[in-house]
From TrEMBL:
Keyword annotations of the record: NAD, Oxidoreductase
Superkingdom field: Bacteria
Biased composition (Polar residues): 352-361
Record's protein name: Phosphoglycerate dehydrogenase-like oxidoreductase
Record-annotated S-adenosyl-L-homocysteine hydrolase NAD binding domain positions: 153-313
Database matches in PANTHER family: 2-HACID_DH_C DOMAIN-CONTAINING PROTEIN (PTHR43333), D-ISOMER SPECIFIC 2-HYDROXYACID DEHYDROGENASE NAD-BINDING DOMAIN-CONTAINING PROTEIN (PTHR43333:SF1)
Any Pfam family hit: 2-Hacid_dh_C
Protein source organism: Kytococcus sedentarius (strain ATCC 14392 / DSM 20547 / JCM 11482 / CCUG 33030 / NBRC 15357 / NCTC 11040 / CCM 314 / 541)
Lineage: Bacteria, Bacillati, Actinomycetota, Actinomycetes, Micrococcales
PROSITE patterns hit by this protein: D_2_HYDROXYACID_DH_3
Molecular function (Gene Ontology), one example: oxidoreductase activity, acting on the CH-OH group of donors, NAD or NADP as acceptor
Length: 361
């Protein structure tokens, strides 16, 4: 991607760019966001919207260069990334998800990234709560009995000994951004005692006394009945929960993962659940999607949903509201929101200097 030496505005666009293009993955979004003309104007420039789902090559228009793209939420294939990075003037990718690791590790430095903070917090927190309740009360086994047409009156002492109410549980939320806080709010409303962990320590809030640093995770795991993962996927969090961490959890404890699949060592999770030491309810897996016959499908004590925590009826409206606000900021020359990685222009290439030859006497 060529270096842009021209002066740039607050969003790293050339100041001379009076008309620019932003692509969206859904053809109905063009009119929904910009009306029948497909364009919106602001105090800084005119923004033209175009449908592009990255499934085919795209020719850029120098008169209205593509400066920002909204990639499909669930379709970032290697070919799609190639098509995206081939755009010579691209400065931004606006993720439709809260997580952006799938873009961060694939897009070159000159392309900045905005995430969808504000879109998925409440729905993902709802799903995390649902997974927690299912695992604490072994509800998936009762669903299996229903499907099989069996009435199972499981009220005896052996059954009760394996069940726990959320209000009498100690819950550890690992990752305390906006979604983690929304989860803590729900869990605390049930009367559970909540502890939060983040990259570094910081003061607490109305739901947690203090946010503990991640390097205290091993100290905290034995003290909690439920561990809910909502941490970003980074080099430090990949494999965060593995065999040793599962061994530190109390017998019968529950792991809930609504973060990213690779935050958990899948083989270690299968072994820990198969042994009966822990139970788990996960919305994300590694690999993803799971191949047919994978042990996560059939291991007792594991409840699985296929990465759909935020998929509710209102998700499209929330995404449209966010993208619409970003478009207006771009048109008005105002700084974008939810910037998680700013563009870093490639360094200018120094021209080669002619070699100095000594005069031959």
């Amino acid at each position: 991607m060529p270096n842009t030496a021209a002066k740039t505005d607050v969003n790293h666009l050339p100041t001379a760019a009076e008309r620019v293009t932003v692509t969206v993955p859904d053809p109905t979004w063009v009119e929904a966001l910009a009306g029948p003309t497909g364009e919106l104007s602001g105090s800084g420039r005119t923004v033209r919207l175009e449908h592009w789902d990255l499934s085919a090559p795209r020719e850029d228009d120098p008169a209205a260069p593509l400066v920002a793209a909204v990639p499909p939420q669930f379709a970032m294939t290697p070919d799609a990334v190639t098509e995206l990075t081939a755009q010579p003037h691209l400065r931004w990718a606006w993720a439709l998800s809260a997580g952006y690791d799938h873009l961060d590790k694939r897009l070159p430095a000159p392309v900045g990234i905005c995430n969808a903070k504000g879109v998925h917090e409440e729905s993902t927190a709802d799903h995390a709560l649902a997974l927690t309740l299912i695992a604490l009360r072994s509800l998936e086994t009762l669903r299996d009995a229903q499907v099989a047409g069996r009435w199972e009156n499981r009220t005896g002492p052996q059954w009760r000994a394996k069940q726990r109410s959320l209000h009498e549980s100690r819950v550890l939320v690992v990752g305390y951004g906006a979604i983690g806080q929304a989860i803590a709010r729900r869990v605390a409303a049930f009367g559970a005692r909540v502890t939060a962990v983040a990259t570094s320590a910081r003061p607490g809030d109305e739901h947690v006394e203090a946010v503990r640093p991640i390097d205290e995770l091993h100290e905290l795991l034995p003290e909690h009945d439920v561990v809910i993962l909502i941490t970003p996927l980074t080099a430090d969090t990949k494999g965060l929960m593995s065999q040793h961490e599962f061994s530190l959890m109390p017998a019968g404890a529950v792991l809930v993962n609504v973060a990213r699949g690779p935050v958990v060592d899948t083989d270690a999770l299968v072994a820990a659940a198969a042994s009966g030491h822990i139970r788990a309810a996960v919305d994300v897996t590694a690999p993803e999607p799971l191949p047919e016959g994978h042990p996560l499908f059939s291991t007792p004590g594991i409840y699985l949903t296929p990465h759909l925590a935020s998929a509710t009826a209102g998700m499209d409206d929330r995404q449209l509201a966010l993208i619409g606000a970003q478009l207006q900021r771009l048109a008005d020359g105002e700084a974008l929101e939810n910037v998680v990685r700013a563009p870093k222009p490639e360094p200018a290439t120094e021209p080669e200097q002619p070699s100095q030859q000594e005069d031959i006497p």
